[in-house]
Design goal:
about 300 residues, alpha/beta, Rossmann fold, 12 helices
C-alpha cells in the first residue's frame, strides 16, 4: 500500500532535486534516487541552496528550510521507493533507459502507486507501452526551475485511469504547484509550443536586422512578460477586443516567421561550441556579473520588491 506522505524522484539533476524540494517543503517524506555517486553526494547541498533561495526571498523561514531538508534523503538504487505514493522519473531523455526504469519500478511499487515522467518530449503512450499496468502512468511535466515555476503539465495517456489523474493533481496542488490537465497529448505539450512559437519570431526579428537579442529581450520582459503573468493570450484578446485583434492579425500574420530556417541563428553558435550559460557564451556572455544580475532579478520577483 502506497502512502501519500512518501514521494520518490528518480534523477538527481537540477530538475529532479528541484521537484524533490517542492514535495519535501510541502511535508512529504521525499526520496531522490541517483545512481551516480558523485552527483548523489552533491544533492543535499543543491537542495539546501534551492531552499535558501526561498528563505532569501522571504517565502519560507529557516526552520521550514531545515524541516524540508530533514524530510529529504538520497539513495543510489530504487528498492527503497517501495511504499511511495508517486514516483517521478526525471532522467535523461533516452527512451530505452526510461522503459528499463519503469520495469524496475513496477516490480517495486505498490499497485496503487503512480509512475509519472517529467519528460518534455515523449508522449505518454510511447513511455508506457511496455508497462504491465499503464493505467497508473502519466506525464507530469515540471518547468525549470521547479521550485520557482508552479506550472505542471499533466498529460494522461490513452490508457491512464481517471483516478490516476485525480490523485496526481491532488498531490501536486498540495505542494503549491499549479497543475493543468491536457485533454490530449500533443508534441511539446502546451508550454513548449508557446515558448518555441515566441522563440521562432524572436530569432526571425534578429536575423532580419530589425533588432538585437538585447532589444527583443527588453521588449519581452517589459511588456509581454508582465502582461502574461497576469492574463493569458485568450483573456488578453477578449480585453483588447476580438474585432480589433482580427484586423491587426489579418495584416500581421502573413509577415510572421513560418519556417525552421531561423534555427540557423542558434546553429551558428552551437557549431562554435557556444552553448549558452553552460559554456559562458551564447547570445550573451555569461560571466559572474550576469549570473549575479539574474539571481538578483529572480529574488526581486519572488519577494515582490
Amino acid at each position: 500500500m502506497a502512502t501519500d506522505h512518501f514521494v520518490g524522484v528518480v534523477g538527481g539533476g537540477l530538475m529532479g532535486v528541484g521537484i524533490a524540494t517542492r514535495f519535501a517543503l510541502a511535508g512529504h517524506a521525499t526520496l531522490v534516487v541517483e545512481a551516480d555517486p558523485s552527483r548523489a553526494a552533491g544533492i543535499p547541498l543543491l537542495a539546501a541552496d534551492i531552499l535558501s533561495q526561498l528563505v532569501d526571498a522571504g517565502l519560507i523561514d529557516a526552520p521550514q528550510r531545515d524541516a524540508a531538508l530533514a524530510r529529504l534523503r538520497v539513495e543510489g538504487e530504487p528498492a527503497p521507493l517501495a511504499g511511495a505514493a508517486m514516483v517521478i522519473e526525471a532522467i535523461p531523455e533516452v527512451l530505452a533507459a526510461k522503459h528499463a526504469l519503469y520495469a524496475t519500478l513496477e516490480a517495486i511499487l505498490a499497485p496503487d502507486a503512480i509512475i509519472a515522467s517529467n519528460t518534455s518530449g515523449f508522449p505518454p503512450d510511447a513511455l508506457s507501452g511496455h508497462l504491465a499496468h499503464p493505467a497508473r502512468f502519466l506525464v507530469a511535466h515540471f518547468w525549470n526551475p521547479p521550485h520557482l515555476i508552479p506550472l505542471v503539465e499533466v498529460v494522461p495517456g490513452t490508457r491512464t485511469a481517471p483516478e490516476t489523474v485525480e490523485r496526481c493533481v491532488s498531490l501536486l496542488a498540495g505542494t503549491g504547484a499549479e497543475p493543468v490537465v491536457l485533454k490530449a497529448a500533443i508534441p511539446g505539450f502546451i508550454g513548449n509550443r508557446l515558448q518555441f512559437a515566441v522563440l521562432r519570431e524572436a530569432l526571425h526579428i534578429v536575423r532580419s536586422g530589425a533588432a538585437t537579442p538585447e532589444t527583443v529581450d527588453a521588449v519581452m520582459k517589459a511588456c509581454l512578460g508582465r502582461r502574461y503573468s497576469i492574463m493569458g493570450p485568450f483573456e488578453s484578446a477578449d480585453l483588447g477586443g476580438l474585432h480589433t485583434l482580427m484586423g491587426i492579425g489579418a495584416n500581421l500574420m502573413p509577415e510572421l516567421a513560418k519556417d525552421e530556417d531561423v534555427l540557423d541563428l542558434m546553429r551558428a553558435h552551437v557549431e562554435k561550441g557556444e552553448l549558452g550559460a553552460s559554456t559562458g557564451q551564447g547570445f550573451y556572455t555569461w560571466d559572474d556579473e550576469r549570473f549575479e544580475d539574474l539571481k538578483a532579478r529572480r529574488l526581486r520577483q519572488l519577494s515582490g520588491k
